[in-house]
Design a protein that fits this description.
Elements (H helix, E strand, L loop, with lengths): L6 H18 L19 H33 L10 H27 L24 H17 L2 H30 L1 H9 L9 H5 L10
Length: 220
Amino acid sequence: MQTGEAWIASAMMVSMAGLSLAMATIHGKADQSPATIRMTAMQRWHAVLWTLGQTVIFWSVFLWVLPMGIVELERFCGVNGFEHGFQLPASIGLFAAASCLGLWSGVTMATHGNGTPLPTATAPRLVIAGPYRFVRNPMAVAGIVQGLAVGWYLGSYAVLVYSLAGAVLWHIAVRPVEESDLNSRFGDAYNEYQRRVKLWIPTVGQNAIQMMNPVERECR
């Protein structure tokens, strides 16, 4: 990483280290199913600190180390990037806006849900506050936009594709599992939330206003 010539190897090693860490820090009861989703109630300050720690790790890995590995691979393969006049300020501004949304979402999950966005330490309460009033998974939206902003900043077509591929993977593989878990834990409350708030496109108007003071239900 110091020489700027080992990002591919760094990306591979960090990814494997992250997988090992995820498996070693699973929370919750051993008999909960699926094994990758564990509900655990935390004190608010503990949940906030845990969420911020997750944020640092995830942003470092998925928004810098892996994209830099992709850029190095592009250069190795002789693929040229792109540049234009307002590229740096525009991409930095987009990244900052998406990062604010991501932080707002994570802190809201921690303070209102008494848990973290990470499935292995998920919140025991259904959160319909903050950005969750307008879109069902604002953290996914924020992460995808952040990835696109990084690809724009680096001038890398492959990083842009990587970000969009992450969105497709989340939608096809992760979303159904999360929604099934939420439906099993919160039932009608989550079904009503699904009906009122869209997954990707922000909900505005009367539906969003009605979601401002929800009756939060706790899974026991």
